[in-house]
Amino acid sequence: MVHTAVNLALNVVAGPAAWVDVRAVSIALMLSYVWLPAAAQGSSAAAASTVQAGPRSMATACRADPARPDLLLATTPGLTLAIVPERWPIPVGRHFSVELTVCADRPGVALPTLIGLDGDMPLHRHGMNYRASIEPLGAGLYRARGLMFHMPGRWRFTAELAEPAGATRRLTVGVDVP
């Protein structure tokens, strides 16, 4: 929602050419959750809404939040995976990225490693035409780039995780793309 507001604001103020600079603004917004939580206390509502643009900590990243329709959660016993698209709603026919957070239900548990992320449309029995690249960011955080949903409808993310003991598990979460 914040990214959409930034896109609209740049387009209105600076014209369509400003869309090129949206990535820099989006990166600044994603990074803002690191230092804005303290500044947001007692500050304007705009700063507080910017804090909502990304997970503020590992503890809250994997919890359901009705105010965050862009927060997609996949759960399995002992583990939750949070997926947050860089743009919401997810665009049709355009590449997009997602940030992923792997959370264990208990502290001190070794986290599995994200080794794959794919998308498919179960009702249509087809998937994406692109393979995502995954960038580890440390401490259970990842960024997947190069995803594209080429048509509107019900899509499903499938994440493949490698457990420290060597086993793999898959977590899935559905998303409606308008």
Care to give the gist of this entry?
The protein has 178 residues and is α+β, with helices and mostly antiparallel strands. Helices cover 24% and strands 37% of the residues. The chain has helices spanning 2-14, 22-40, 45-51, 58-61; strands at residues 72-76, 79-85, 96-104, 113-121, 126-127, 133-138, 141-147, 153-162, 168-177.
Structural class: alpha+beta
Reported CATH architecture of the largest domain? Sandwich
H/E topology pattern: HHHHEEEEEEEEE
Fraction in beta strands: 35-45%
CATH class of the largest domain: Mainly Beta
Unreliable segments of 5+ consecutive residues: 1-56
DSSP summary, beta strand count = 9
Could you tell me the mean pLDDT?
76
Main beta sheet = 5 strands, antiparallel
What name is given to the CATH topology of the largest domain?
A: Immunoglobulin-like
Name the shape in a single word. Answer: globular
CATH H-level superfamily of the largest domain = Macroglobulin (MG2) domain
Terminus-to-terminus distance? 15 Å
Instruction: Supply the number of helical segments.
Output: 4
The strand order across the widest sheet is 1-2-3-7-6
* Gyration radius, in Å: 17 Å
Helix content: 10-25%
Taken together, the total number of domains comes to 2
Description:
This protein is an alpha+beta fold and 178 residues long. The chain has 2 domains: 1-54, no CATH class; 57-178, Immunoglobulin-like, CATH 2.60.40. Helices cover 24% and strands 37% of the residues. It is built from 4 helices and 9 strands, in the order H-H-H-H-E-E-E-E-E-E-E-E-E. It has helices spanning 2-14, 22-40, 45-51, 58-61; strands at residues 72-76, 79-85, 96-104, 113-121, 126-127, 133-138, 141-147, 153-162, 168-177. A hairpin with a 4-residue loop joins strand 4 (113-121) and strand 5 (126-127). Helix 1 (2-14) crosses helix 2 (22-40) and helix 2 (22-40) packs across helix 3 (45-51). The protein starts with a helix and ends with a strand. The model is unreliable at 1-56 (pLDDT under 50).
